[in-house]
Amino acid sequence: MAGVTVGGQRIDDKIIARMQGIIDDNPGAKRGALSRQICEGLKWRSRNGRLKEVSCRKLLSRLHREGKIRLSETQPFGGRRKARIDFEPVLPEAVSSSGLQDLQPVALVLVGSAEGEASRIWNDVMDRYHYLGSGPLCGAQLRYLIRSEKHGWIGGLSFSGAAWSVQARDQWIGWSRRLREKNLNQVVANSRFLIVPQWKVPHLASHVLGLAVKRLRADWRGRYGYEPVLVETFIEKERFEGTCYRAANWIQVGETQGRGRQDAAHCRRSSIKRIFVYPLGRRARERLCEGGMGPKVAVRKREPEDWAEAEFGSVDLGDQRLNRRLLEIARDFYARPLAQIPQACQTRARTKATYRFFKHPSTNMDDLMVAHRKSTCERIAAKKIVLCPQDTTSLNYSTHPATENLGPIGPAKDGVIGLIVHDTLAFSVEGTPLGLLDVQCWARDGEEFGKRNRCKQRPIEEKESYKWLRSFQSVAEAQRQCPDTMLVSMGDREADIYELFHLALQDLKGPRLLVRAEYDRLLEDGQGHLRSVVAAPPEAGIQEIHVPRRRAVAARVARLAIRFAEVTLKPPKDKSKYGPLKLWAVLAQEIEAPKDVGPLCWMLLTTCPVTNFDEATEKLAWYTKRWGIEIYHRTLKSGCQIEQRQLGDADTIEACLAIDMVVAWRVYHLTKLGREVPDVPCTVFCEEDEWKALATFISQRPVLEGTPPTLHQYTRMLASLGRFLGRKGDGEPGTKSIWLGQQRLDDFKLAWKLLVPHLRPPPVPGAYSYG
Fold it and tell me: Model pTM?
């Protein structure tokens, strides 16, 4: 069998053979005795020195079921008879007041032996009052009873093993799959929490949570020999709001996808849960990502050598060879963005290594994007306001019908096939792309195609439109990492979703939301419909905006009449649980539109306050930057040729897509950066060999020394290699001319490196022009 890791122990065919040898040498031995011998032989111990007998017994049973080892049959076990402890909580009527002070002092009692009285009381109270019962709990665990000195037992809670893989939590931590496997034992789950229902005492639950996290590290160290650094818990959306966790300063990092621990087949049979975490120290995330169990010696951070190392250098794929290969592939793809993989890699050996890399089980999209997200957040933190439009695009692979695990992307079930991509790209207010915050990629299920009429009966978490809420949660995570920056999540009319507005209003410190309205929604208190209410007052002013060319419609400057109002949306009939939502609306209607051109009419809904004309035009200017993500998608498809990749299956395409998306961002970033900061030296963006090779080709004489050109000059020279003529009416170069020029520049740079040792400076130095 292929090597797998179980409980921190690497299991392969040699280990299995040793285990079978121990079993054969001890015929008739019980599994408990066998597990102790195997743990001794394999030196399989936990951090506190105890043998990992439970993990070993589970492994033995699994290997026996799979036919990889032979065990004697187990004897039937009647089970122990547990003495029942009747738990009778004190009812609130028995006390003079139900305030927290009347219960003090409240303390936590650590439950010891499973056979002790405290354990039986804990099991009894959970079985009676907790909807999940007393267990079983997973992995290492601690249980506590909650005791009031005046009134006795009033509840209990437990901490046990963390969930193996949770997307929102893992993104919040920022660790790779390899680090998660190594450090997951440092995360513990608050798996049970109960205050008996008769005690409805304000602030009691949050007070108990505060007591628990204060002593958890010491108690865990006393039992298991090490301290956890993070606590997680999961709250069912349909049952609870998680108010006590918020009051105790826990952080909500997202929601589960509704599959549960045992859903390996992705059937989504469990309920959706809110995910809360509580760091047990200031550097919780750093410790989980660095892999250290104790204090680490401060190491000076080395500056990245180039853009590839800056965007992918901190990715940990579990093998340094994979890490190095990732950087090589990124550099090759950026040097030749239009090339197919064999042409980009240039040699047969590098091409085969690239295909092996994309098929490796460790190279999934999420792990490959971790480092780029971190770099994006660093760029975001340097800005005051960052716009985060999200949008959906499709990748058409109909020309590669043998590709596995694709789905329909067109209006017909048996028509065009491919993948759906929904991403969020961060922009400065000037329009410079800062990087990707979220990428979702999936194939639609052909069996579910055409069942749109059932959509209204399904919760939002089971709909494709939940992609908008997931991306908003990713922006919310970036907002927590960049508290001094205001992030604004934006969407087109498809994002006009009532649940999205509700989510955006939950956290006052979270990101803002700006969406173009699709529906003329009904307002609260009989005010009427949205459009008629916002259009009723006189215009606040006139704003001119530039409208880019779209197909046969020429670019133009549109004059818009601006109106705004504060509105309260009435929830749809099937979403009354969300209640009314207070938003601000901005209406922009084009006046004096050209003939044969439909006038612009935008109704924007936002969680940002809009109280005057300047604030209204600001939101309008922000929304115009949403077009940037459509330009980015064009760059990805046309510039990086992602739809031409022939990789065999959807998972391999997703791994390749992760690199192509960062390369497309890099091309787009250069295009915009040359306009935003045109006078900085080009060396902030390119290598010395690149600008010297480019200047030599443009000037037609060797450029061995001299001052680097500005970034504006560099981008225009580079674009000239991509057929940009630079005439007065041509404006600034776009992404297409940049990616075409980049492909030619790589050949010039290679020639430059080969020839420069043999070049001599011209006898008569003279100035050269950068064009």
Answer: 0.65
